[in-house]
Specification:
The chain is of the alpha+beta class. It is 55% helix and 16% strand. It is built from 10 helices and 11 strands. Strands 6-8-9-11-10 form a 5-stranded mixed sheet. A hairpin with a 2-residue loop joins strand 3 and strand 4.
């Protein structure tokens, strides 16, 4: 269904889900980590917020209220008992009973207000309590000395300065709870990540083995991991055995058929060799030779070169051999270019046949051929260019179909029409592909991509 045809809420949900999907990682391991970490982080955030909002802030406000009440009581005592002229008794009572250090600064004024801390529960709570209980101009310092707080309140003849320990107005040990909570969460997440990694490894191993099997490479594999992963591994092994058994049976059958047909064709050739060589007999001999070539092409297409083992292959040497084969066909090979001497794991005979089919078509329809090999991020590319008539863009996929022969198509002239089909099947059996493009030489470019 088109996006415009959906209801507005559905369109919004579809757009949001696509945006989230583009941001989220694509790997199973990363997504599993998010599934584990996201709920833990969310839970810890809710707990930390609740603790900060309810416990930490509540305790701090109550402690600040108690300290403010003591300061208010000291101010009342100072103003109610003027006979204590030097405030010695007031200072002694505050120090011995309230653990407060009090100084009367006669004639002094409050300092100018400084910048408030960005985040300080103590500063906010203490200011609120002083405004609520004392109702006088004040000045506080909660950050100047880390272990102390200073409160200055305006009195009629000066300023009363009160110094208290920070712990008297602030729940200073609450951060221990947060540290324990965060530390335990990190330990649990670390253990979970280790176990998750061990569970993801068998899945990644199974994916790598399946990809290698699709490229024609053999990797030793034994199912491991959870029960479901082992079941998938055993199912893959059984599927691999069935495919190999079916390919082996097909190859055996084709070998038998080819042997019988070759015997009959050989009889034809011997019979024609014994009769008098007339123009009609020569035509029959050419027909028998053509029949033999078509038979070999059909069998090669059906067989698919599946019995060959993939080995590390020097691509420069392989392309030099291809150059020699193309020059034998009478074409001029302009260049064989390659940046270095890369080794790619592949089935050399199959790839040689794939490239030869493409190069032979280039030599048949053009006079000049250029062969270029280069490595990309995860693949090795071979480009074969010619200066022939080329193929129309709308027919370039059509020519890869078996037995399709267009007027200007790059199929075997007078043959079976399987040259490009065999080339693409070989490339795809390696996990790659063959594509056709316009050539810088004016003709056609055939590009073979092989995973490296």
């Amino acid at each position: 269904m088109r996006l415009a045809a959906l209801p507005r809420p559905a369109r919004i949900w579809r757009v949001v889900s696509r945006a989230v999907g583009d941001v989220l990682p694509k790997g199973l391991y990363a997504r599993s980590l998010i599934i584990i970490i996201a709920p833990v982080v969310l839970l810890q955030s809710v707990i930390a917020y609740t603790f900060m909002e309810r416990h930490w802030q509540l305790v701090t406000r109550r402690l600040s209220a108690a300290v403010t009440a003591d300061v208010a009581a000291l101010i009342d005592i100072y103003e109610s008992y003027p006979q204590d002229k030097d405030s010695e008794t007031l200072t002694r009572i505050a120090n011995d009973r309230l653990n407060l250090d009090v100084d009367i600064l006669k004639g002094a004024k409050l300092p100018p207000a400084g910048p408030r801390p960005f985040f300080s529960i103590l500063d906010e709570a203490l200011s609120d309590e002083i405004r609520r209980q004392i109702h006088r101009p004040y000045w506080i310092d909660t950050v100047g000395r880390s272990s102390l707080i200073e409160i200055r309140v305006s009195i009629p003849d000066g300023v009363m300065r009160v110094t208290a320990r920070r712990s008297m107005a602030y729940a200073s040990n609450s951060h221990i709870f947060l540290l324990w909570m965060s530390g335990s969460s990190l330990v649990l997440l670390g253990v979970a990540i280790l176990f998750l990694r061990n569970q993801i490894k068998p899945i990644l191993r199974l994916a790598a083995v399946a990809e290698s099997f699709g490229k024609g490479r053999e990797i030793e594999f034994r199912p491991r991991g959870a029960r479901e992963v082992r079941q998938a591994g055993h199912a893959f092994i059984e599927m691999k055995r069935r495919i190999e058994r079916a390919m082996e049976q097909r190859t055996t059958m084709l070998n038998g058929v080819s042997h019988d047909l070759r015997t009959i064709i050989t009889r034809f050739k011997l019979s024609l060799a014994l009769v008098e060589q007339t123009p009609e007999v020569e035509d029959l001999q050419r027909d028998v030779d053509e029949m033999s070539r078509m038979l070999e092409a059909y069998l090669a297409f059906a067989r698919g070169d599946s019995g060959e083992v993939a080995v590390p292959t020097d691509m420069r040497a392989l392309l030099e051999d291809l150059r020699t084969d193309v020059e034998r066909l009478g074409a001029h090979v302009e260049a064989v270019e390659m940046e270095d001497h890369p080794h790619v794991t592949l089935r050399p005979d199959a790839i040689r046949r794939c490239l030869f089919n493409l190069a032979a078509n280039a030599a048949r329809y053009g006079e000049t051929v250029a062969i270029v090999g280069r490595r990309e991020a995860r693949a090795f590319l071979v480009s074969i260019d010619d200066d022939g008539p080329g193929i129309a863009p709308d027919q370039r996929e059509e020519v890869f179909k078996p037995f399709v022969r267009l007027d200007d198509a790059r199929q075997d002239a007078g043959g079976s029409g399987l040259g490009l089909s065999i080339a693409r099947d070989i490339a795809r059996a390696h996990g790659g592909d063959v594509s056709l493009h316009d050539s810088p030489l004016g003709g056609l470019r055939a590009t073979v991509r092989i995973p490296a």
